[in-house]
User: Fold this.
Amino acid sequence: MRRRFTGGELFQLRNRIPVDWLIKEQLHIPSKVIEGIFRFLCPLCNEFQTATNPNPSFPLEFNIYCNF
Assistant:
Protein backbone atom coordinates (compact mmCIF):
# COMPACT_ATOMS: atom_id res chain seq x y z
CA MET A 1 0.00 0.00 0.00
CA ARG A 2 1.30 3.46 -0.89
CA ARG A 3 1.91 6.09 1.78
CA ARG A 4 -0.11 9.25 1.36
CA PHE A 5 2.13 11.55 3.41
CA THR A 6 5.80 11.51 4.31
CA GLY A 7 6.86 11.72 7.94
CA GLY A 8 8.01 15.29 7.35
CA GLU A 9 4.65 16.26 5.87
CA LEU A 10 2.78 14.80 8.84
CA PHE A 11 5.13 16.64 11.22
CA GLN A 12 4.48 19.95 9.47
CA LEU A 13 0.73 19.36 9.41
CA ARG A 14 0.64 18.52 13.11
CA ASN A 15 2.52 21.68 13.99
CA ARG A 16 0.11 23.84 11.98
CA ILE A 17 -2.97 22.70 13.91
CA PRO A 18 -3.56 24.89 16.99
CA VAL A 19 -3.74 22.28 19.74
CA ASP A 20 -5.79 24.52 22.07
CA TRP A 21 -8.49 24.80 19.39
CA LEU A 22 -8.33 21.06 18.71
CA ILE A 23 -8.78 20.14 22.38
CA LYS A 24 -11.57 22.64 23.06
CA GLU A 25 -13.56 22.88 19.83
CA GLN A 26 -13.06 19.54 18.09
CA LEU A 27 -12.45 17.01 20.87
CA HIS A 28 -14.73 18.85 23.36
CA ILE A 29 -12.43 18.09 26.28
CA PRO A 30 -13.29 20.29 29.28
CA SER A 31 -10.84 23.18 29.40
CA LYS A 32 -10.27 26.59 30.97
CA VAL A 33 -7.71 29.37 31.14
CA ILE A 34 -5.97 29.64 34.52
CA GLU A 35 -3.61 32.58 35.08
CA GLY A 36 -3.44 33.11 31.32
CA ILE A 37 -2.50 29.47 30.58
CA PHE A 38 -4.81 27.16 28.63
CA ARG A 39 -5.53 24.03 30.71
CA PHE A 40 -7.52 20.94 29.78
CA LEU A 41 -8.91 18.10 31.86
CA CYS A 42 -6.48 15.18 31.80
CA PRO A 43 -8.33 12.01 30.74
CA LEU A 44 -6.03 9.90 32.94
CA CYS A 45 -5.99 11.73 36.29
CA ASN A 46 -9.06 14.01 35.86
CA GLU A 47 -7.17 17.16 36.91
CA PHE A 48 -6.34 20.42 35.17
CA GLN A 49 -2.57 20.07 35.77
CA THR A 50 -1.93 20.34 32.05
CA ALA A 51 -0.64 22.82 29.51
CA THR A 52 0.08 23.01 25.82
CA ASN A 53 3.33 23.76 24.07
CA PRO A 54 2.61 25.72 20.89
CA ASN A 55 5.90 24.74 19.23
CA PRO A 56 5.93 21.83 18.67
CA SER A 57 2.20 21.53 19.04
CA PHE A 58 1.47 18.94 21.72
CA PRO A 59 -0.24 18.81 25.11
CA LEU A 60 1.57 17.97 28.37
CA GLU A 61 0.35 16.49 31.66
CA PHE A 62 2.32 17.37 34.80
CA ASN A 63 0.96 15.01 37.48
CA ILE A 64 1.76 11.83 35.61
CA TYR A 65 4.46 13.38 33.38
CA CYS A 66 3.23 12.31 29.99
CA ASN A 67 2.84 13.80 26.54
CA PHE A 68 -0.36 13.18 24.64
About this structure: The chain has a mean pLDDT of 82. The beta strands are 31-34, 37-40, 50-54, 57-61, 66-67.
